[in-house]
């Protein structure tokens, strides 16, 4: 039931984001390509991954073919990385708006963002490569246990979990802290002279995003960060320690945590609509 509601939320919410891009011209701004790209990844999670996970949770053994198991694991690694890394990219984009406004406005083009989106997707596919390399072992493990899991070495599993979650999280949190401190300093400076504040905003209206919009963007970024980090933390922890534990329900726990992670794909469109 929980996962079914998540699937509906993922598909419905992200479809609205994609339709808004197609039919609502004001949305078609270069920086919003990040939101469109993430919506595509989240939509694919709702259409491909979440329904497969639902069937997997209903069955004791893997209910699909060996080929789909191998593809499924690679797609999980790719799409979840795309979604999470986009959060870091959006945070860095906010950072450049606040700290490097003049240069940012000069490179504020579709090609600039498309290049970075291409890099995110390529990097995410590289993160999913271990599932491709280990396909023979995955097939053997599936035939022996009936479970669709990549039998990676424990150390490499920790490296992957931390690299895919901890590193982006550190970047995101540091970026948010710097932006928050910068806007706080600007508020203190401008509040000391209201006339100066009004004058500066008016004079630079075409070049600098007004402070209220910056604060609103910062609040939205904080919610995005909180939602992403909290949603994916349980899966990251369970995935990292999977090989070091032997409790009977560890695979069920991992799949449940994966469903919680997928819920972030349903939250994103709601957050951006604020």
Description:
α1 (2-23) packs parallel to α11, α3 (66-99) runs antiparallel to α10 (211-241) and α8 (154-191) runs antiparallel to α10. It is built from eleven helices and no strands. It has 274 residues and is an all-alpha fold. The protein has a single domain (2-272), classed as Rhodopsin 7-helix transmembrane proteins (Rhopdopsin 7-helix transmembrane proteins), CATH 1.20.1070. The longest helix has 38 residues, at 154-191. It has helices spanning 2-23, 33-58, 66-99, 101-106, 110-127, 129-133, 135-145, 154-191, 194-203, 211-241, 250-272. Mean pLDDT is 83; it is low at 199-209. Helices cover 82% and strands 0% of the residues. 28% of the residues are buried. The chain crosses the membrane at residues 6-24, 33-51, 71-92, 113-129, 155-173, 220-242. It holds the Pfam family 7tm_1. It is a multi-pass membrane protein. Belongs to the G-protein coupled receptor 1 family. Residues 13-272 form the G-protein coupled receptors family 1 profile domain.
């Amino acid at each position: 039931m929980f996962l079914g509601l998540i699937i509906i939320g993922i598909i419905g919410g992200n479809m609205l984001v994609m339709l808004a891009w197609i039919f609502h011209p004001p949305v078609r701004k270069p920086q919003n390509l990040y939101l469109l790209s993430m919506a595509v990844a989240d939509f694919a999670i709702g259409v491909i991954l979440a329904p497969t996970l639902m069937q997997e949770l209903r069955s004791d053994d893997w209910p699909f073919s060996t080929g789909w198991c191998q593809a499924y694991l690679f797609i999980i690694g790719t799409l979840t990385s795309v979604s999470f890394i986009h959060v870091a990219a959006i945070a860095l984009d906010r950072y450049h708006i606040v700290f490097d406004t003049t240069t940012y406005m000069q490179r504020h083009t579709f090609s600039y963002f498309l290049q970075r989106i291409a890099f995110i997707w390529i990097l995410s596919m590289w993160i999913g490569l271990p599932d491709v390399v280990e396909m023979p072992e995955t097939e053997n493990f599936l035939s022996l246990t009936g479970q669709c899991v990549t039998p990676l070495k424990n150390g490499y599993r920790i490296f992957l979990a931390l690299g895919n979650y901890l590193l982006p999280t550190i970047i995101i949190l540091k970026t948010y802290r710097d932006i928050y401190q910068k806007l706080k300093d600007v508020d203190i400076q401008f509040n000391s002279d209201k006339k100066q504040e009004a004058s500066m905003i008016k004079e630079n209206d075409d070049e600098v995003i007004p402070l209220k919009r910056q604060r609103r963007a910062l609040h939205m970024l904080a919610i995005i960060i909180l939602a992403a980090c909290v949603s994916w933390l349980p899966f990251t922890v369970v995935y990292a320690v999977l090989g070091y534990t032997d409790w009977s329900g560890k695979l069920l726990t991992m799949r449940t945590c994966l469903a919680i992670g997928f819920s972030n794909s349903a939250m994103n469109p709601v957050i951006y609509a604020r």
